[in-house]
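If you are new to this repository, start here. Below is one unmodified record pulled from the training split, so you can see the exact layout before writing a loader.
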Amino acid sequence: MITTDYVTGSPCWLDLGASDVAAAAAFYGAVFDWEFKPFGLDAGGYGVFRHEGRSVAAAGPLTEEGARSAWMIYFRVHDADTAVSAVQGAGGAVRTPPTAAGESGRMAQLTDPQGAQFAVLEPGTDPGLQKVDGPGSLSWTELYTTDAAAAKEFYGRLFGWETQDMQLPGGGGTYALISPAGGGQERMQGGIMQVTTDLLALTGGKPYWHPVFHVTDCDATVGRITGRGGRVQMGPEDAEGVGRLAVCVDPAGADFVVLTPTG
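And here is the target side for that same chain:
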């Protein structure tokens, strides 16, 4: 499970690069009952989503030319410069070098060797998201990649992640469960799934990360998503031992998953 007791390699922040921040705030507010609080007076600028008074995500305008609307997952590191050097040494790329992010610390936006985009955060006085692993918040992270073995090696060296392979039912392939170093099963925070390029249409065949949000009623949430102009790529369907889930896309094309966990 994801917790707010962040350690190296933990997902600790999440933001949406949006083509229209106000429209995104309205959509996710209706879907998850989130409240959007912009930094400063510009409602179209960067701001934080809160649920029950606690930060659960953020959103801001797209800053890279040609970028699509998408969620960005930030993983905690002790030192952003060291992480950037490690990514470059392993064949990854730096999209945004280490940059001050106010009380949040220092961040860098990166790309792994297969093309999946992610970010790292060296914490400041604000450690990260205030609510996770509960209704209306981030509960899992997932990488769709064309080379799971290479991804496990890359992220394992970068973050010290430990992975455990499991076979998906019905011959669906192998899914690698992720835990931070020494975290064990109780700290599992995400998964790596190898897929073919035809299943990566949103990114033109490039691997990508997406967030999984905990909801109390998957089907009702899907109704709110489609009612607000979003669409469903898969589901809702039951996943044995996991819960009821649906893979969704917001009106601007950013993908995410909603999950009502078993139990």
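Two things worth knowing about this chain: Helices lie at 21-32, 80-89, 148-159, 218-227. The radius of gyration is 17 Å.
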